[in-house]
Amino acid sequence: MIEFTLTRTTSAPIEAVFDRLTDHRNYKNISPLRTSELVRPGDTEPNGVGALRRMGLIGPAQIEEVTEFERPTRFGYRLRSGLPVRDHTGTVELAESETGTRVTYSVRSTPTLPIPGIGLVLGIILKQGISGLLDGIVRAAEQSTAD
């Protein structure tokens, strides 16, 4: 089992952070991801619950489905394909703080390859990739409010 939580604090307001977090098509412009696109819009909002997004760094792209969209405090997704894992979920919680916004990104995943140590390797790769994405989201939110 792979489990980790990343936390960032930003001076950007919670609404700006949520908007950047849920702008799937822009991920490729603010993070190490090479591809990011909205495959299918959500049920009530384009980037909301039910939306499918395709993202990729190297190798095959991952398809993720948005499962939670509670503006501006919570966003969640589950991986549908693209990585050798099952039951992969990500949850991002945003909370206002004295200095702006606190962002907590939690991931759970189960590797499917029967190779000793693969969980450790995949965990490192996932953590680095998501950390880069999270840093880009925070930077973009800060820049959007500085303009």
From TrEMBL:
Source organism (scientific name): Mycobacterium kiyosense
SUPFAM superfamilies, sorted: Bet v1-like
Annotated protein name in UniProt: SRPBCC family protein
